[in-house]
Amino acid sequence: MVDLIESAEAQLVVECGSGTSTLWIAYALRELGHGKVVALEHLPEYAMRTQAVIDDHGLGWFADVRLAPLRKRSTDRGDYLWYDFEPRSLHAAIDVLLVDGPPQDTGRHARYPALPLLRDRLAPGARILCDDTNRRDEKEMIDYWLEDEPRLARQSSPAPDLEVLMLRA
Ligand SMILES: C[S@@+](CC[C@H](N)C(=O)[O-])C[C@H]1O[C@@H](n2cnc3c(N)ncnc32)[C@H](O)[C@@H]1O
Fold first, then answer.
1. Is there an atom of ligand 1 within 6 Å of 162 CB?
2. Can you tell me which atom of ligand 1 is nearest the CA of 101?
3. How many domains does the chain have?
4. Ligand 1, atom 8, residue with closest C-alpha
5. CB of 101 closer than 6 A to ligand 1?
6. Per-residue DSSP letters for 51-92?
7. Which of 30, 32, 37, 142 can bridge 25 by disulfide, Cβ–Cβ 3.0-4.6 Å?
């Protein structure tokens, strides 16, 4: 994740599902000397925890933790519970998208909406890093994305449960 952010010289990272990863991303951005991570979090408790860790490390400049409860969101493949988040509120195009939420117990293919709902905000050449790709839902999610978006291609699989995709320019 850090390598990806550094090699992309990311200005804007969006993370679905906050946690310790948010801290690592903020440190990676500080190393770069620029950029911001917008971390979407549906649970108030975890939003507060992530915010507290970011504050403890003095990284508030690099991280924007957004409490975004799950609500019904419509896609071409049907309705899903996904973050109550307005992509137009982003200040720039997304260079790196990390897909590690919502948790699988919130619904079948719970993470699928990330691509259809954020596609218009992805920068040309954007990278998408998906966690938990050893699970059936996440494997099928990527298959759906590749069917839906011809500009999307698999790029690498740095670990058995991780997959990186790239949106061609
Ligand atoms: C897979 S976790 C996201 C983890 C985060 N991206 C990371 O790697 O640190 C997905 C969701 O589970 C919840 N969560 C976060 N940390 C957790 C923990 N330690 N135990 C259980 N649930 C957690 C939060 O609601 C989070 O959005």
1. no
2. 10
3. 1
4. 21
5. yes
6. HHHHHHTT-GGGEEEEE--EEEEEETTEEEEEE---GGG-SS
7. 37
**For the whole prediction, is pTM greater than 0.85?**
yes
Whether a cis peptide bond, with omega within 30° of 0, leads into 103 is no
Query: Residue 115 belongs to a domain with what CATH number?
Result: 3.40.50.150
* pLDDT, tens only, 48-107: 999 999 999 999 999 999 999 999 999 999 999 999 999 999 999 999 999 999 999 999
163 pocket-lining for ligand 1 (C-beta < 6 Å): no
From residue 131, give the alpha-carbon distance in Å to each of 90, 134, 162.
23, 8, 5
Residue 2 and residue 120: Cα distance in Å, rounded? 24
